[in-house]
Write a structure and sequence with these properties.
The complex is a heterodimer of chains A (374) and B (118). With 374 residues, chain A is mainly alpha-helical. Helix content of chain A is 70%, strand content 4%. Chain A has a three-stranded mixed sheet, with helices on both faces. The termini of chain A are far apart. With 118 residues, chain B is an all-alpha fold. Classes of the chains: A mainly alpha (374), B mainly alpha (118). Chains A and B meet through α3, α4, β2, α6 and α7 of A and α1, α3 and α5 of B.
Amino acid sequence: MLNDYLEASIGQLLVRAKNLQAEISKPSPVEFHTLWQKCTELTNDVIYGLEALLSDPQYLTPGAEAERMRAYKRRVEDLDLLENVAFAALKRPNDEDLRMTRLAGEIAKEIDYKLVPPVVSCQSQAYFHAYPLFNLLSVPQKEVDFLLHLPDLYHELGHFVLLAENNLAVEPFQKAHDRILADALGHLHQLKSRPTRGPKADAIVLRMWEFAWVRAWATEFCCDLFGVCAIGPAYGWAHLHLCMKRGGDPFHVENSPYSTHPPDDARMFIILEALTLLGFSKEAAEIEQKWRGLLSIGGYTSNSNYERCFPRSLLRNVAKEAVAGYRAMGCRTSAEKSGMPVCNCLNEAWTRFWSAPKEYAAWEQDRVRKLFET
Amino acid sequence: MSQTGIYVGGYQRVRDYAESVDRLLLELKSGHAPTQETLRPVLSLLEALENSQRASAAVQAVNVLLRSRKALPRSKITTMRTELQTKRASASTIEGLETFAGVLDEERAAISARLRGV
């Protein structure tokens, strides 16, 4: 059964993969050439992998059906991801993609980013998405016309740093991430010996938190702190902005193994800690004041789960480790200011936002034009 | 911010681990001694799981996964690694590798479903 199925299905997938390659084989802007090359390499890997499933004697050995089936599924998914994300970006590069890709390149230059800056595609139907495998960043279509959420680009650059392999230049930040995670897991281990719901119920919640820390929370904290180090106060303002627009209870701790982000208050806490470490105490106090306003208006208060999972001492250490890791990479911090026009522009935007709210929208349109002219 | 970033990063690591374990299983099942190239990534992973307190986030994730499924206790991982270092694999080690491959594949499929928003 399996052999007949794979003969037909793989034949079809090979046609699909080759068609995709043919579709992008046309002149494209030079900024997209790295993505193009990556797509070609990865698609060829999928093709060779699929062909091997039909011809490699190891896959045809009796008893190897389960391995063959799993390998087939992996290749199908590899091709799906290529088609839906990377090829989709390559098929329709437009002026907005080019402007954002160039902006990411400028940011990389400003902060002395240690990796090849990603290609940016303005095709996201949700929020900012990083695809480290393709070195591709996807942003909402119209974000290119505004400034206030652009600090999140810096957060996404952090994802690429954390997932780079065999690169000593980014190792200090990666090691900081590993120390943060070890510290958090150590904290959870201690909590196990102090059950609050009865040992069984507690063990289930702690296991969920453990999953969330290793899968997402440590990474998200580190990317937030990469963003703070690189762009400074604007990052804190952008976080507040996002929470005002889309956030729920900022103290809510998800008890799901697939939680994607730590609670917003914990994120804000580490952002403010890092700003203080970087010399932005005054700005941190201003952001904190507004944050307290948000909590008060929403009627949000802390809860016991939050206090247990994210004690202040743990969060302070998260900020300290990540800022030290960022500095040890030799990347420039936003505190340097000179020669950082993009960083300065995004911080200026937030100063204008609060100092002249009524005029902000008009000012921003003019400033966006100038930003992309330079 | 970047929900997909997490999943793609996590997906890739788990996918690569699953691929490495399956490649080793294929070589063992075909009756040949595994090559160093095939063995190395699996041995590194098993070794990292034995010392998971100092391991990377990706290894920690696999470790939590194995513990939550109550699959492959640490002693079993040590036995598997010791055997594989001599390029041998008993029926019990092959069975352990199959369990490991199954758990990794389940996790890969789960992350993939999240990626697609399913």
